[in-house]
Amino acid sequence: MPTVEEISKMIEQLYTMDRIISAMQKKPHDYGGQLLYANEAHTLKAIAQSEGISQAELSGQMFRTKGATSVVVDKLVEKGLVVRTREDGNQRRYLLTLTERGWAVHQAHLAYDEAHAAWAAQHLGLSEADLAGVNRSLEQVIQFYSEHYLRSGQPVTPEV
User: What is the DSSP string of 87-156?
Assistant: First the structure.
């Protein structure tokens, strides 16, 4: 069983990684001639992986409020990458799909991520086994906090 000290250290490392990712997300990247912020690119990816997903479902999947999701989706619609259509028989529920251009930009994003992963693999100095262990650990941490901290999408204060 891990010590409280090691768990605290891990949480601090995750906060540091969050700050690094936040800094990276402040600069848009060109994906096949389309400038997108990381938040937009990953929202596009989530829609591509679940075409026809509703905005509410996307909010839950991305751990975002419905309002924040709506803002990002609005930007993707304005850029001609996503189509928002009302569900038949339900005037309040919007379903999201990619346009042809959206698919092209999504493919450019996937190619960029693959090139980035190749670059990191070359320069990180970690073995396949090291990375597999990190990934297994991260999967467990994500599952734990998803189940015990984000019940119904709402933060829960742990009992101490």
Answer: ETTEEEEEEEEE-HHHHHHHHHHHHHHHHHHHHHHHHH---HHHHHHHHHHHHHHHHHHHHHT-GGGS--
CA–chain centroid gap for 34, Å, is: 19
- Dihedral sign, Cα of residue 80, residue 82, residue 84, residue 85: positive
Among candidate residues 5, 24, 90, 22, the one with its CA nearest the CA of residue 54: 90
* C-beta of residue 155 within 8 angstroms of C-beta of residue 149: yes
Main-chain phi, psi angles of 25, to 5 degrees = -75, -15
Residue 96 CB-half CA count within 13 A: 28
Rounded Cα distance between 5 and 70, Å, is 39
Identify the CA nearest to 47 among candidates 5, 89, 87, 76. 76
Of 59, 101, 107, 111, the C-alpha closest to 78 is 101
pLDDT of residue 155: 59
Distance of CA 21 to the CA centre of its chain: 11
pLDDT of residue 142: 87
Low-confidence ranges of the chain (pLDDT < 50): none
| Residue 51: per-residue pLDDT | 92
